[in-house]
Amino acid sequence: MDECSPSSLEGDPSEEDAKPFDFKRQASPTWDNDEDADSDYQAKPTKKKAKKSSNTSRSSTSKAKAQDKGKGKLKQKRGKKIVDPDEEEDKPKKKVVLAKQVYWKDIPNWGDRTDCPLLQLPGDVLDMCFGLKSGLGVRDYVALAGVSRYFRHHFTPDIFHSICWSKGVSHVSTLHTTARQIDKPETPSLANHIFSRNVDDWKTARPSKIYNYGNPIHYIPEGPREVWSEAQYIVYKEEQSKWMENERKTQIKSIRETLEEQMKEDKKKKAWAIVGAHSRKVLATVKGREDGEPAIDRDEHGLPVKVKKVVDQSDTTSERAEIEDQVQTNKKKGKKRSGRLTNNKRWTVPDTDTEKEYEILPQQYVNNGERLIYDHWPNEWRCLAVKWINNKRINKTEAMRVYKVTESELLCLKHVLVTNPMSRKIPQQAFLEAAVEALAWRSHGGVEGHKQYIRARAIQTQKLAQNRRDRIEKAQRDGTYVYKHKRRYVSPYDWWRRDFVYDFYGSCESDCEACARENGSDYDW
């Protein structure tokens, strides 16, 4: 072996060098002997990286700790948008719809004139203007009877019976959707001769609330009245006044209970509403908004939020003191019992008591804020016509589609919230159809203006539909037409019928009109 070879320099290998390799790092071949070579140390074992779990999201507590320690700093990444969790995202705000009040524009201004030339016309001319052939509706006759005593006097129960029969008025109820027809009058055409016949005065006076005292149960001295002493008479008058007061209180209580029972019955009738062909439960009643006001606030169930009135307590003490002073000054002075008798030895008993009746005024049994209205011309057929008119309600979508009114205009109308079969959290708005029709007349400039507006919208719709058909025909000729599947509108109560028809005839998943025609089930839902 060559003397200059590395093996000759290191010497011959011994038995210890023949041991197996003990995971030691081999020294690089070099001519110098390194006293502190890397081969004398064991190699560090390599760490295995833990596999990432499927759920890489950090808990809320760990995120909070990282943010507190300053480790949760945002890092810029290429191609990703950085969102600061502390800053709220600017979401698009929903457009706030404000109420828009609409007024009549075709009412002439009479100025200072108080006469009415219309009522001075002959009866035959008025019959031609207001008869059954004039085209007036039931609501028009009710309105005329409500604003003029002259019309109210001539619209007798027989006249309204003829009107209701001719216009198809029926007995209605909020609990049942089926209507019951009214009886046929003896003279169905009597409403054609309203003003050309003589009508007697049939106005009824308001019944007086005068009641008689019952049998007295108070103290009455014995013997004839002429022999009563002064002391007996004083005790007699005191007991009599107490008994009369109790009689009045008992009668007032009975009248109030009767009114409360009537109000409960009216509330039961108003708890349901007929919307379309179905009876729905009324959840709440919403008053119409003023001009420029937004819609009412609603809770998570879609019901209006009750606003609590904030009362300023600063001036309540002074106002309360003034009210107490007024009550004390206006308080009736009761009869005081005289402690001493008169010195007149020839005292005589006063005349016999003539107070046998007492009167009860409406403010004694009607609560504050309520009004007691009395009908001096009672008419059962007019009341039936009013119930029939107020029984018809439509939802907001139907009102905007049929009468072409806007959502801001509908906010001014009083309406009710009824149950929605498609969603529990979104109640359905139900408006009186008569009120919506009157709103459309005010918005479009009267009855004739409304007809012209509807006619113009229909012409515009026809033009748009014709333009669409022309574009489709042109695309079909060019070969670029692609049919788009359209879903048909199915009302909530027709799903059972739709499933039955589709199971029988069959249909595709798209539920389009073309498949319905091909399968022979082209029904107008």
TrEMBL record:
Compositionally biased intervals (Basic and acidic residues): 16-25, 311-323
Top-rank taxon, per record: Eukaryota
UniProt feature, compositional bias: Low complexity: 53-64
Residues covered by region (Disordered): 1-91, 311-348
Compositional bias of kind Basic residues: 330-339
InterPro entries reported for this sequence: XPA_sf
Protein name as catalogued: Uncharacterized protein
Species classification: Eukaryota, Fungi, Dikarya, Basidiomycota, Agaricomycotina
